[in-house]
Amino acid sequence: MPQQESGNWKPHNVKALEANATLVFKTGDIRKLNKATYNFIVGHMGFIAHYDLGGFQSAYRDIKLFGEMLQTSEHSRDPDYNLNWATRYEESLTFNVGYGEPYCQSIAQGIRAIVTTARQQSEQPRLSLV
Known about the structure:
The protein is mostly helical. It has one domain (14-121). It is built from seven helices and no strands. The chain has helices at 14-27, 35-44, 53-59, 63-72, 81-91, 93-99, 101-121. The longest helix is centred in the last third of the chain and has 21 residues, at 101-121. It is globular and about 40 Å long.
């Protein structure tokens, strides 16, 4: 990965993250989780890094558990844990100076989009997308 310039990190594609999370929940298939969304989740949402994407998918085959963990992280039982982290990313002067405001906002928006998707989709019936 190329080194990022201090204070000017490239923002995440929040729409792509949300679309991929939605696909995972609509299909009920963790194998639909792509590398970019996996990297975002393990990097910013309190998940331990697994050996690789396949190892993560194997650990979270239970979509209901995955949806719960997207809210709480692997470190907490608080359903707003990750939403609170989103706010920290936006409000932290250290983060904003070090990474840049657009990058920090993309993390906060990405976390909120994924948590919202997990909450909404976990209550919906699974669709079979072939």
